[in-house]
Structures are given as C-alpha cells and as structure tokens.
From TrEMBL:
<dbReference type="Pfam" id="PF05787">
    <property type="entry name" value="PhoX"/>
</dbReference>
<feature type="region of interest" description="Disordered">
    <location>
        <begin position="660"/>
        <end position="696"/>
    </location>
</feature>
<dbReference type="InterPro" id="IPR006311">
    <property type="entry name" value="TAT_signal"/>
</dbReference>
<dbReference type="InterPro" id="IPR008557">
    <property type="entry name" value="PhoX"/>
</dbReference>
<protein>
    <recommendedName>
        <fullName>Phosphatase</fullName>
    </recommendedName>
</protein>
C-alpha cells in the first residue's frame, strides 16, 4: 500500500553509543537507551560487596534426534558428561575439549576467518557457500499470496513469513526434512512502508500488518540435494506450516494463571491472553516443543500515565513511561486494539513478557504462556536436565543492569512419558543469580586488566524466588513474584549484569554460558568482577560451572573467558589465547554449541563499526579463547539464530533488520539484500561446498 505522506518526524538520533542505528533503537527497544535504567534497586554491583519425545513425535518422522540433543543442551539423561562423580571446574573445562568427544585439545576448526567489512552481503570463508532459506513475506500457510511490497495487506501478512527473524531452531523429520521454527521479534515500519510517518499518522491497515508481522513461523524445509543447503518446501502438504502473531489466541498455565493481575475486560478469567510480542531468542524442550521468549514488550503500550497510582511503580520497573500518554515512536497498536491503552486496560501489559511454549508438530495447538518461569524481558530459555532428571531452564533478562535466572522443575523428566513431561514447566522453583568475585575490589580497576589471581572469576548462588504458590520474597505473594519478577529479584539482592542475553549449556562438558551484550551505562563506581568494565560497549561472556556439574545445584563457580572488543584494546581478554590471532568481536548476543562443544556466538550492534556476524570460540583445550569470525551479515543487520545442525554440515542464521540504518527508507534503502530490491529480513544457511563439517 503506497503512502505519500511526508517524511516521518520521529526523533531519529540514536541514544545507543554502540554500533546500533537509531532505527533499531526506536523500533526494537523503544529507545530504551534514552530512558532511565529501569532497575533503580540498590542491589550490589557485587564489587561493593533429551530427547525421547522427539524420538517418537519428530523421529517417527525423523531420526535426527541428536540435533535436538545439541540444541536443547540436554546432557543429563543418557548423555555425555564427564564421568567424574564430583568434578571441579578445572576438570570440567580442561578435561574434555571442544574439538570432539575424544578429549583432543584441538578444536578441529580450520577455516580461514572472514575479514570485518561493511558489505551489503553475507560473506563466508573460502570453500563455503550460503543461501537464503526464507524471507519476510514468503508464503507460509498454503494459500498465502506472493509478497508484494507495495501492496501489503494484513490478511496476506498473517499467512506470510513475518518480519525481523530472530531465534531459529530445527525440528528434524528425517535426515533431509524438518520444521524450522523462527521468531519474528519486531517490525520496522520505516523500512516496511513507503512514506511512513509514525504510529499516529499510519493508516490502520499498516498497524494491522505490523500486528500480523510479529510472532513466529513454523515452516517445513528440506535439504537441497546431498549438500548442507536447505530450502523452503513449496510443494506438497506443508501440513505443519503455521503463522503465529500478536493476535493468536493463547493460554496461561502455571501458578499465576487466573491471577487477578492477569485479568482484563476481554478475559475476566485471566487465563486466555491474546498474541505474543517481541519474541527474541528461545529454546527447545526434550519433548519436542519450542520455547519462545517475549522480550521488549514494554514498547507496544500507550497510556501509562493513566494507570492507577498504585500500579505505576510496576510499570516503571518494566520500562514503561508513566508520565507521557504516547511515548515517542510508539506504533499505536491501540488505534486498532484498545487493549494496548493502559489507561483503559492496565493489566493487559501483564499478559506479555513470558516464555511461550509452542508445539510445532500440531498446528492446531494453543500456545502456552508458562507463568512459572516468571515475567521479564525474556531473552531465551535453554533447557537441560539436572543430575536427578529435573528439568532446568536458564534465562536472561535483557536490559541494562538486569539479572539472569533459572527454573528447576519439581518433578523429573521421564523419557518417553509426554503426558507427564508436558507439564514440567508449570511446577518448580524460579531462582535468580547472585555473584561474588574472589579478587580484591581494588584490583577491578576498570581497565580490563586481570586481577592478581589471573582471572575475572568467583562464586555464585541461585537464590529461590518462588515455588508454586509459595513465595520466598518478603512482602510479595507468589503471583506477584511471577508477574513482577524483576521487583522480586531486586528484593533478594540479585547481581545486576550488563544485559544478560542468551544462555547455552555445553553439550560436551556441561558448562553454561551467558552472553552479556554491553552496558554503556555502567559507571566506574558500579564495577564488579563479573562486570569489570565501565561504559561497556563491547560486552563479554560469562561461564558458569554448576556445583558438582549439576544443573540442579544451588551454587556455581564462574569466570569470564571472553571480554570482547578489538584485540588490540588492552581491556579485552580472549581466555589467554594469543590476541594477534583472534577476530575482533563486539556485542555477543545469541549463543549455540556444535556437537563438538565449540561455542558459536552471533553479535548485535558491533560497536567496532563493521557488520555484525557469527563467530566461533573453542571453550576448552589449547584453542580456548581462539575467536574466529565465520560469517558477516549485511551492514545494518544483526546476526541471530545461530543453529548448527546435528550433522554439523549446516549452520543457520537469522539476518535481522538488514538496511536498518539511520535515514534509510524504501525510497532510499541502505540495503537491497537479499534480492536486489527492498531489504527483507531472512533466515540463511551456510555450508561447506564439499560437505565438510562447518568450521573445518
Ligand atoms: Fe532481542 Fe536481547 O535481543
Ligand atoms: Ca579473580
Ligand atoms: Ca537477541
């Protein structure tokens, strides 16, 4: 739908001092960096102080069980953890290696890294190739029309692949076929529509298109020939293909379902939310479902100034203005659906910010918002098993100075017993992390110089917040802890981190990794050993070894194997590896492991000035810390996903917001990727031309 309105009047100066464009700031995070940090607590910057169900559901169709073992990180049941009964951190990290299950000290990674660049293209190492699997607007549901940029409709978008793809995972159905799940995090209306002004002036149909472009997609894909290339299945039944949007009927489960805090005029039961928003990263369960994480849901609402006074503090803690009626850059979903006006429907916002479980194999299933996992700017939920078989989910809350969490189920996972397993995420204990360093505070001087003991490291504990209907937080009910989880974590003294993003568990040795993207707001007075740099533009990675290497433990050891940036910058650290050999890396975001235990890292907002990309780092053996860049995405995009298939012959990435550069519009595009026309967020796959393992 062409629109000849004058140029938009949004203030498009990026508040973000990293590498992100102002468009990204406006449309992805609602200008979060321009706002006050929403965690006002005085919590310490502590320096002051699997897969069986798949085997029947997917693998009846499948046989590639292992891919999900890797992507879920399920290592507790019948999987390969080091045999030591009570291994210490050193044993775990050094005893087995990236590079293979055999304990070799070499990672097996031999590719020639790609050079940093600003190209409007995906670049891969010599010997590799890549292609686009699915792009914004591609038909998903049978009967969907072909994409037509200048004649978009909401009805078409609801059947087509959504915008800004983020989390990607593959549910195999045999060696050469599978269901690809993809999140659609947010819309960038300035790039989607010609002449877009702002949400106040937008034609209602554009707002409806945006609602339909959020959510997620299930698409059936197939291997192309015998290579590592995969492509959309465009013929045949495509019986599993599905679009989920900001309007798909869902339900709540778990202890807060039916809570008064979740009741609205449209749903007086508090059990049936409508749609999901800002789905960022995710995870999978051992029984073959996807967990998708609602992140910056705060940006979709207006009317925060009109909520009852006693509810305002809760809004502020989740980054919603209570002083202005219509925040700058708001998409004005309320013009289509009144529920997005908090002055009229103050509880509607409590129905977002959850982990949503979706069964990709049942297109008629109702998505479930699992309240036991708490409410925050959820980045992801990575599942694994405790040694006793309880299900564990690791989760980050991606905002500056927020926390990271884990959920441990009450009951054990029973291989093959779906009817039992599918409710494991409804009963259990939600914990938040508190970290302490083991070096004197004076040695954390902000330069990045390692403390005297040679490592940024220390100990951590998981503090229980809530278990079923029992709250462990003074002054808060269990329902309040689950709906206002940030406030609960404030009260128990959790550690404020530099934007906790994706978490992943190493399938080889069980160590857990957390990407900390950046935090330019951290001051020198707020340093601690786990967040040791002020004005942290490039981020770092935290490594956790749970006590007894048991994901169900209450304590852990931690260290920082990677402090990102240009390796010539003395504040960087690459686990002691020779910095003259590594690739520069900035703003780690999504993480994934390959089957050999090498850590793949995608970046968002490269503050070194070049395109974002995908990197790989061995985390044990003699190449621990040897970061190499495997691919770059078009300048202006961030790299999401990533996902290495179980056979290690393919790596999928989501190319999110190509061409999202300040000043870019459809009439003045900053990118024409992937088709030489308007930029289209897409999932891509890369492979070795001779069928070798990715990275070899
Ligand atoms: Fe959507 Fe935290 O990145
Ligand atoms: Ca130390
Ligand atoms: Ca992310």
């Amino acid at each position: 739908m062409a629109n000849t309105s004058p140029q938009r009047t949004l203030p498009l100066l990026s508040p973000h001092s990293g590498g992100r464009s102002s468009l990204t700031c406006a449309f992805r995070c609602g200008m979060a960096c321009a706002h006050e940090v929403s965690n006002p607590s005085e919590n310490t910057y502590f320096g002051d102080v699997v897969a069986d169900a798949i085997s029947r559901r997917g693998a009846l169709r499948a046989g590639a069980l292992g891919a999900l073992v890797v992507s879920t990180g399920v290592v507790g049941v019948g999987a390969a953890l080091p045999a030591a009964a009570d291994p210490d951190k050193e044993t775990i990290l050094k005893g087995s290696s990236g590079g293979g299950h055999g304990g070799s000290s070499s990672s097996g990674l031999k590719f020639t890294p790609v050079a940093p660049n600003k190209l409007d293209a995906i670049t891969v190492p010599p010997g590799y190739d890549h292609s686009v699997v699915v792009r914004w607007g591609d038909p998903v549901v049978p009967g969907a029309p072909a994409f037509d940029f200048d004649n978009q409709t909401a009805a078409a978008q609801a059947k087509q692949f959504g915008y800004n793809c983020d989390y990607v995972t593959l549910f195999p159905m045999g060696k050469d076929r599978g269901l690809l799940w993809v999140n659609h995090e947010y819309t960038d209306e300035v790039l989607m529509f010609r002449g877009y002004v702002d949400g106040n002036a937008a034609p209602l149909e554009q707002i409806k298109i945006a609602l339909a472009a959020h959510g997620g997609s299930v698409v059936e894909i197939a291997r192309a020939g015998k290579s590592g290339k995969w492509a959309l299945v465009t013929h045949g039944s495509r019986r599993y293909n599905r679009r989920l949007t900001a309007q798909t009927p869902m339900r709540f489960s778990g202890p807060a379902a039916g809570s008064a805090l979740l009741k609205t005029a449209a749903d007086p039961t508090g059990r049936f939310p409508k749609g999901m928003l800002n789905n960022c990263a995710g995870g999978t369960t051992p029984w073959g479902t996807v967990l998708t994480a609602e992140e910056n849901f705060n940006q979709y609402f207006v009317g925060g100034n009109g909520v009852p006074e006693d509810q305002k503090a809760n809004l502020v803690r989740y980054g919603i203005s209570t002083t202005v009626a219509i925040p700058s850059g708001n998409r004005r979903f309320d013009r289509v659906e009144e529920r997005f006006d908090l002055a009229k429907h103050p509880h509607e916002i409590n129905r977002f910010g959850w982990i949503v479980e979706i069964d990709p194999f049942d297109p008629d299933s109702t998505p479930i918002k699992r309240t036991a996992l708490g409410r925050m700017a959820h980045e992801a939920a990575t599942t694994t098993l405790a040694k006793d078989g309880r299900l564990v989910a690791y989760m980050g809350d991606d905002s500056r100075f927020e926390y990271f969490f884990k959920f441990v189920s009450k009951d054990r996972y029973i291989p093959g017993f779906d009817r039992h397993n599918r409710d494991l995420l409804d009963e259990g204990t939600l914990y938040v992390a508190k970290l302490t360093g083991d070096s004197p505070a004076a040695e954390i001087d902000g330069t990045g110089k390692l403390p005297g003991d040679g490592e940024f490291d220390g100990a951590g504990e998981w503090i229980p917040l809530v278990s079923g209907k029992r709250s462990f937080v003074t002054g808060m009910t269990a329902e309040e802890v689950l709906v206002f989880t940030r406030t609960a974590a404030d009260k128990v003294g959790a550690t404020k981190m530099d934007r906790p993003e994706d978490m992943e568990r190493n399938p080889v040795n069980g160590a857990v990794y957390l990407a900390l993207t950046n935090n330019t707001n951290r001051t020198a007075a707020q340093l601690d050993e786990a967040n040791p740099r002020p004005s942290n533009r490039h981020g770092h990675i935290l490594e956790i070894v749970e006590s007894r290497n048991d994901a169900g433990a209450n304590r852990f050891a931690w260290s920082l194997p990677l402090v990102c940036g240009d390796p010539t910058d003395p504040s960087t650290y690459f686990a002691g590896f020779d910095k003259t050999k590594v690739s520069p890396i900035s703003c780690p975001d999504n993480l994934a492991f390959d089957r050999d235990g090498n850590l793949w890292i995608s970046t968002d907002g490269n503050a070194l000035g070049n395109a974002d990309g995908l990197f790989v780092m061995p985390v044990s053996g003699r190449e621990r810390g040897y970061v190499r860049q495997f691919l770059t995405v078009p300048f202006g995009a961030e790299t999401c996903g990533p996902m290495v298939t179980d056979d290690q012959r393919s790596v999928f990435v989501a190319v999110q917001h190509p061409g999202e550069i300040t000043g870019a519009t459809p009439d003045n595009p900053a990118s024409t990727w992937p088709d030489g026309a308007q930029p289209r967020p897409s999932v891509a796959v890369a492979w070795h031309k001779q069928g070798k393992k990715i990275g070899s």
